[in-house]
């Protein structure tokens, strides 16, 4: 701790080094004047054209000095083991609502050969956030379908998007492939438990700090990226457009979705384009609306009219809807492609990934589903057992929030016998294993009486995607969420744990939790959160009197699979997503609907650090 | 008692050598006669001690120390701090390699052995989660919770489960900078943390929700390095880079206020420890030891004057009862820790940049 004597690097760890792991230090040819080192009196701003300016940070925004463009690409940031936030802040600049406006302004006319078709896809969680926000300030509640209608009207009329979709059909495909992957792993082709892959925050964290978890993470693409494939590959094919002739924007509840869209796996080298060109958050969409003076609380024409196209499950309770009359799948008039809208997937508002595998766990008539709350609504265990024998057929969990995520990582690592984390010296791990071994033998009981998980739906945000970082904040509690005074006592607020009367007491996050509940409510269209359904009970018995509510979506999904993978063995769309196709077609399936993960190794070499 | 004469002096009891690099921290086993120390050399050294049954009269007996074992730990970097569980059976190590090691003795008999820690200490669990250097670990008074803090600006709360299993109960991201220290309230599950952001934060568990910060104590002009609750839990002492020790009083259940700023050090204060001491006055709150970059050890007696019949506010008073400059010669002193065991209330240990661990006894005149 002393600075007397030799200053060694050991001393430095008590200092805050910005990102000691940055692999590409910025080199500037036009160096700013050397000032007092460490006194950061200027900051760098980026304008809409991507130019960097150095401005003073004390608010006096004098003419910023244009800086040389720093040679750090997004991929450098993503490959870096430094902080997530620095990569995020780059992405927030590169994928912003102004970026969208810039594109739309500069997009040449339709007649021009360089014209790109602007397409927007919005997530159901974003719609729920908007619906909750509009409902809270209007006399009668607005449901998701109304909001989708209004968002469509806004995007087409005020912004100039040519096509607007919601991402639930893409999610439907993601869930089908997800379930298929789970079956593969059950057969031994991959590791169990399978961990959900839709949350980019979790993926980013796992790649940087828990490489040992990567083999467990589902390789199925997230709904956003499936949507990217649908728009750029499938729709593009139908429109006769190349991927780079389409500009695809998604609206997501989460900033990290920007990171996901930027992954090199979703970059098409041939056409130098991404499956999703730009991701904006729900909040940024709302900002766009405000900038264009668009009032989302105003009804638009035709929003109450029954849809002529495939509309499934959104307004009717899950599992009780009837099949819509058959229409030509997917393709409407001209360029207009119709996707089934707002397909409700019972389970969780984060995407029902767990439910999609529970449904396959066993026969509803002979199985029983038990739910155990481990810690609040954010950590629940789901066990499917055989009614007759009591044998556990499936054990899964829903696990949201960073804290619970830690415990799942520990549990999965322990159950699967993998070393968790970057790991200390090997010797330490060996000793540790010895300690554990003693434990099981000393008990005299069979080791691992407790069945490990088969599947975990992991989400980084407490409350899941409806509470994503990009969602609208509670209109009432805005003040609390932003500038919540940390020092209750010094602000003269009587802080008393026992008095539940003061909302602004220590239970500071009460407001946002309540708000999340409202968004959750809006997501399920005013219905109470659907209870977990026993296996097979939800989608309806395939052979029974009731048809799956999502049967049309299934048919269209098969059509998509057929169109994209071009199986040679079958001449017509396969009847099921799960049908095995020829090798080449399966290769295409992997390309279009699966992805991969890679550990991000720390780039810091010892640098002769003396620890 | 005269003002110019210190009422007590600090006498060296033992000088424990063996660390190859700076010694960071020491921890007294609360149940057994073991003193542990940790160092940048990545080891933990354990010493057994016993009192010489002195015939010269009580108070004069000095504990005698002997090295019992060295744990090489396997941590990849410096072991920055250590903490005993209240049962005295488990030791936690916080390392700059970002991990926390949990150590116990393989053989249950060894753990019951009150005479020393001769049995082999094994790493039973490794707690990972911090992204960068872990600075401090601390067991709650009940022993069912473990807190840790790190340069990654976070404070983690772990629940202790059977078989050396731990569950993360909370990740508190309240500080804007490096968190230097965590400390538990002596009787309640109230956690305090101190940071490079110059503040102290206090946390509670909301049974239906998560751990949350209920108070931020601002006042120090620089990094807060160290925290120590008073034995009765009504006060909190903090040592800072601004060369002062501040005393914070719990004025309401969830409200703490600074009631005293103690000066006397000329360099950063790296460590404070508040023990029961051997009271010399009425209303004693115990003895507060502080040390740091100036190598000076100050021992203060803090006491509270209860208002008379007429009422009025009780006031806190402090008095330096002993001072020792250059405790580790020219080296910085990184920590000072009172022995918590009965009969040893006047004994404390220090760890210094010279790699030495020293044990001291306050001898009242």
UniProtKB/TrEMBL annotation, chain A:
It holds the Pfam family Fe_hyd_lg_C. Residues 528-537 have a biased composition (Pro residues). Residues 314-328 have a biased composition (Low complexity). The keyword 4Fe-4S applies. Keywords: 4Fe-4S, Iron, Iron-sulfur, Metal-binding. It comes from the Eukaryota. Residues 306-331, 525-548 are annotated as: Disordered. Residues 128-469 form the Iron hydrogenase large subunit C-terminal domain. InterPro entries: Cytosolic_Fe-S_CAF, Fe_hydrogenase, Fe_hydrogenase_lsu_C. Belongs to the NARF family. This is Iron hydrogenase. The lineage of its organism: Eukaryota, Fungi, Dikarya, Basidiomycota, Agaricomycotina.
UniProtKB/TrEMBL annotation, chain B:
SMART domains: WD40. It comes from the Eukaryota. CDD domains: WD40. The keyword Nucleotide-binding does not apply. Pfam families: WD40. The keyword Repeat applies. WD repeats lie at residues 16-57, 72-103, 127-160, 172-203, 217-249, 333-365. Keywords: Repeat, WD repeat. PROSITE patterns: WD_REPEATS_1, WD_REPEATS_2, WD_REPEATS_REGION. Transmembrane segments: none annotated. Belongs to the WD repeat CIA1 family. PANTHER family: CYTOSOLIC IRON-SULFUR PROTEIN ASSEMBLY PROTEIN CIAO1-RELATED, WD40 PROTEIN CIAO1. Essential component of the cytosolic iron-sulfur (Fe/S) protein assembly machinery. Required for the maturation of extramitochondrial Fe/S proteins. This is Probable cytosolic iron-sulfur protein assembly protein 1.
